[in-house]
Specification:
Layout: E1 5-8, H1 13-24, E2 30-35, H2 50-63, E3 67-71, H3 73-89, H4 96-112, E4 119-121, E5 127-131, E6 134-138, H5 156-161, E7 162-163, H6 171-180, H7 202-210, E8 215-219, E9 225-229, E10 250-256, E11 261-266, E12 274-285, E13 298-303, E14 311-318, E15 321-331, E16 338-342, E17 349-355
Parallel strand pairs: 1-2, 1-4, 2-3, 4-7, 8-11
Antiparallel strand pairs: 5-6, 8-9, 10-11, 12-15, 12-17, 13-14, 13-16, 14-15, 16-17
Helix pairs in contact: 1-2, 1-6, 3-4
């Protein structure tokens, strides 16, 4: 009996190449486009899905695949956009892409449509490793494009059902395949930024929902007021641009949300940007806890933001939390970010937790 596969296709080159690769392997995937963006007549000039849908439709026709458009607009704006606005209001640094994967692509979609299929294929740069009968999230061949940090909140059962056909290819190889086979998305640029914003400026989006609340920008080391801001929610830890201060560079190093004060440090490499300890709560293991009852320090690699580089360190359980000690100083540790933990070879992704 042939495997039934649902392919989540966004209209971009990566997910389009997924369709080509599946067809080349003899599969007949059903293509799904998940509509999450607001409609123009909602009164919100966000990103339009029409071009994405057109490209996806052309891809489906090229390969003779059934094509369905499914709407998870309301769920997305409740679970992902709502989470983002709430986190920013609380002075945290959110990660909407993590929540989109957890609740939408591998949450709501799986519950409503994915259960009719043996596998769900996506254009994420990731891999699945089968070890002793268990499926583990594994890093992609292309370290620059690896997206396992965005997938580190989904579960082991979800991983066992997923396929990442481009995960064992370099991005350049994906582009070559798309060009060689004249895929409709071959010349499309990679999408950038937060998925629900489209062409909308991030600060304009935040201002729409949270408004403005002017406050002081204070130099941390001296207590001297060096400028003003429109609201602490417009600024993130580690931010350099957009502060409107002369005599820089200046970096945001701390926020006092009760007093609406943004603290900054001056210089190209201020010490206040860095730390070596990352406290993590609500840690989520994707497949299983690889350490079991062992409570000592475990050697790991980890990330606290989406970068190609892994940082070496050790993790130890501290009550209901975990503490990561980094081997080197890391910049911009921000509350609300996800700390994503990998094995010491940076191959298996164990899971993630929220930085406190």
């Amino acid at each position: 009996m042939k495997m039934e596969i649902a392919a989540l296709v966004s209209g971009g080159v990566d997910s389009s190449v997924v369709v080509h690769l599946l067809k080349a392997q003899g599969y007949e995937p059903v293509i799904f486009y998940i509509r999450i963006s607001p409609d123009a007549d909602d009164g919100y000039a966000g990103c339009s899905a029409e071009e994405d849908i057109e490209i996806t439709s052309l891809t489906a026709k090229k390969y003779g695949c059934r094509f369905e458009i499914v709407s998870l607009h309301n769920e997305y704006w409740e679970k992902v956009v709502g989470y983002t606005i709430d986190a920013v209001r609380r002075g945290l640094t959110p990660n909407p892409d993590v929540m989109c994967n957890k609740y939408i692509k591998f949450g709501c979609f799986e519950e409503r449509w994915g259960r009719d299929f043996d596998k769900i294929a996506t254009g994420h740069y990731a891999d699945v490793a089968d070890i002793r009968g268990r499926s583990w999230l594994a890093t992609a061949k292309d370290p620059v494009k690896d997206q396992t940090d965005f997938l580190a909140q989904i579960g082991g059962l979800q991983i066992s059902k997923l396929m990442f056909p481009v995960g064992r290819l370099m991005k350049s190889e994906v582009r070559e395949i798309a060009t060689a086979h004249n895929l409709p998305a071959a010349r499309r640029k990679d999408s950038q930024g937060i998925c629900f914003l489209g062409k909308i400026n991030y600060n304009d989006f935040i201002a729409r929902y949270l408004g403005q609340m002017p406050g002081e920008i204070v130099e941390l080391e001296t207590g001297r007021t060096v400028g003003t801001h429109r609201g602490y929610w417009f600024h993130t830890i580690g931010q350099r641009k957009g502060l409107g201060l002369s005599g820089g560079p200046w970096f945001v190093v701390k926020k006092d949300i009760d007093r609406n004060v943004v603290y900054v440090s001056n210089g190209y490499d201020p010490e206040t940007q860095y730390g070596t300890t990352v406290e993590v709560r609500d840690f989520h293991f994707i497949t299983e806890d690889p350490w079991g009852e062992y409570t000592g320090a475990k050697e790991i690699t980890f990330k606290i933001r989406h970068t190609p580089e892994f940082t070496r360190g050790a993790i130890v359980r501290a009550g209901n939390m975990y503490r990561i000690e980094s081997e080197k100083k890391i910049q911009g540790i921000a509350t609300g970010q996800f700390a994503v933990v990998y094995d010491k070879e940076s191959r298996l992704c164990y899971g993630s937790g929220v930085i406190v």
